[in-house]
Amino acid sequence: MSEAEVRRCLESVSLQVGSMRLKEAMREASRLAPVESEDLRKEQVRAVTMVVGQLKTEKAIAESVGGLEPDEEDNLMKLVYIGLGMKDSTISLPLFKVHDALTKKAGLGCIVRAVCAK
Questions:
Q1: Does 3-116 carry CATH code 1.25.40.190?
Q2: Tens of pLDDT along 75-112?
Q3: Rounded distance, CA 111 to CA 72, Å?
């Protein structure tokens, strides 16, 4: 996937969050797998945390994750682990909330696939 495609996706997430279409924003943030570029990966993680920051309750997070397809679930879990690896305490809590919701929906296989992915 190209850098331009990732940037379009990130812009779409931002626009959807601004319009309070949060389920769509979560789906868009999860659409693309993490990329090679470390800077772009960080931007992908920020997009996820931007969406989660607007989802005020765990129920809202679970609902936004509930509409994801299996590939999107795996992409999102990979981004969660990348974000947790950044060791930034300001994003850890939202990422753990997403992790919890994803694990409840997709099961442990989602974690295994994310951890084992290259």
A1: yes
A2: 999 999 999 998 888 889 889 999 999 999 999 999 99
A3: 13
